[in-house]
Design a protein that fits this description.
mainly alpha
């Protein structure tokens, strides 16, 4: 949650508000999902910037941050119906990777532990 006492970045706020308004306009324009998704990607860039620490959520302020979050979820989940589906294969592979990591750590094979850790970081795990 954003710190209400932190300084807000008006340029960032304006970009988020423009992307939100543009996404709604696109949907009002004969359900133009292609344009709406383009504007959602702009919001996603801001969300990823917050996630990676390049942008502080406080720079947007609590109201704009919440509006961005709610808009993104509304469009992606409620309107477009996009959800992350993790299949059995992905879960089985993740279980195997964790087992290999645990076995390497128990065997004090730190080179293998480091290799597994580096690979998983590359994949975003």
């Amino acid at each position: 949650m954003p710190n209400p006492e932190a300084e807000q970045d008006q340029e960032q706020i304006q970009q988020v508000e423009q992307s939100i308004a543009a996404a709604y306009r696109a949907m009002d324009d004969d359900f133009n999902t292609a344009q709406a998704i383009g504007h959602l990607f702009n919001l996603l860039k801001k969300i990823n910037s917050i996630f990676t620490g390049q942008l502080q959520s406080a720079a947007l302020g609590e109201e704009v941050f919440s509006k961005m979050k709610e808009t993104f979820i509304t469009f992606v989940v409620d309107i477009l119906g996009l959800i992350e589906e993790k299949g059995e294969v992905q879960n089985a592979m993740l279980d195997l990777l964790l087992k290999l990591y645990s076995e390497a750590k128990t065997a004090r094979n730190y080179a293998k532990v480091d290799e597994i850790r580096a690979s998983s970081k590359k994949w975003g795990s």
